[in-house]
Amino acid sequence: MSEEIEQRWKIEENLLDVFTQISQSYDNYKLPIQIRLEKNKMKIIEDILATNPNAYKDVDYLIDIASLLGLENTSEIYEIKKLVAEYACKNGNFDFAREIVLKLVKAKYKPACEMCYQLANSQKALLSTSQRIELVIV
Asked: Counting C-beta atoms within 10 Å of the first and last residue's C-beta, which end of the chain has fewer, N or C?
């Protein structure tokens, strides 16, 4: 019974840490109770990216927050990195997105392959021909 209580306590501590970190780094975020009640913890990461235009630049920080939320397995971390790449594209930072996507593809994360293709064919992405080819042949 005591181990279960310790585990619940750790979850609560982590949620408070998440709130503290997010509130110190980003404006207008949720209250601790809102974070606790959110069933889809990945949505919290998505919300941070959606409401803070430069949040995508701090991948390690987002992964730390995700870890505190219990998002720790490899596929969840890869999904966060893919989200970061998507938001980098939305903010016009195609080189940053390309670097992340290439790493995900090399790690054999299949959902990143489609993004490689989209980046390579994007008229908005100011990528060189060699960078576009790299995205296609990875």
From this structure: N
